[in-house]
């Protein structure tokens, strides 16, 4: 059986903290504003947290896919869209805080992707109760 092994415990707890805070935020927004669209990120974050806490073999790939889609590609497209809109409007209504926020999100996503590749390994483990070969 394969399991994810986090060689850096600090990264392990940071990724759990980030996902937990995002989960709490999405739960708040979903229930406070009755937004059913918030159920999708909640389901993704709960699934990812379960994979990480169980150290399932798919935890590494789950973190990477989540970081690429939701922390790099999504904000990257938003950044590009706002940049193109502001270019068309000659930056008359440019919001610097928006660019800083989306840029920071992209950087966090890249850092998570980098540290996942460097510190998370999928290792072969011996199942308990498995009989050994007595030749």
Task: Kindly describe this structure.
Helices cover 70% and strands 7% of the residues. By secondary structure, the chain is mainly α. The chain has one domain (3-123). It has a two-stranded antiparallel sheet. Helix 1 (9-32) packs antiparallel against helix 2, helix 2 (39-54) packs antiparallel against helix 3 and helix 3 runs antiparallel to helix 4 (96-119). It is globular.
Question: What's the total count of β strands?
Answer: 2
Q: What is the number of domains?
A: 1
Approximate helicity band: 55-70%
Counting DSSP H or I runs of 4 or more residues, the number of helices is: 4
Q: Unreliable stretches, pLDDT < 50, 5 or more residues? A: none
Counting helices, strands and paired strands, the structural category is: mainly alpha
Instruction: Kindly report how far apart the N and C termini lie.
Output: 23 Å
What is the residue-mean pLDDT, rounded to a whole number? 92
Classify the oligomer: single chain
Overall morphology: globular
Radius of gyration: 19 Å
Element-level helix/strand string: EHHHHE
Beta-strand content: 5-15%
Sheet having the most strands: 2 strands, antiparallel
Identify the strand order in the major beta sheet. 1-2
What's the short story on this structure?
By secondary structure, the chain is mostly helical. The chain is built from four helices and two strands; from the N terminus they run βααααβ.
Question: How is the topology of this model organized?
Answer:
Blueprint (H helix, E strand, L loop, with lengths): L1 E5 L2 H24 L6 H16 L4 H30 L7 H24 E5 L11
């Amino acid at each position: 059986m394969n399991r994810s092994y986090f060689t850096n415990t600090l990264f392990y707890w940071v990724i759990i903290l980030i996902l937990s805070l995002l989960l709490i935020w999405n739960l708040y927004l979903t229930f406070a504003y009755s937004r059913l669209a918030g159920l999708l990120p909640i389901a993704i974050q709960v699934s990812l947290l379960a994979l990480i806490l169980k150290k399932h073999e798919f935890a590494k790939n789950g973190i990477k896919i989540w970081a690429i889609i939701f922390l790099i590609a999504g904000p990257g497209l938003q950044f590009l869209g706002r940049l193109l809109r502001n270019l068309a409007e000659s930056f008359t209504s440019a919001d610097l805080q928006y660019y800083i926020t989306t840029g920071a999100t992209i950087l966090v996503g890249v850092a998570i992707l980098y540290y996942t590749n460097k510190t998370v390994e999928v290792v072969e483990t011996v199942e308990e109760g498995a009989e050994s070969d007595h030749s």
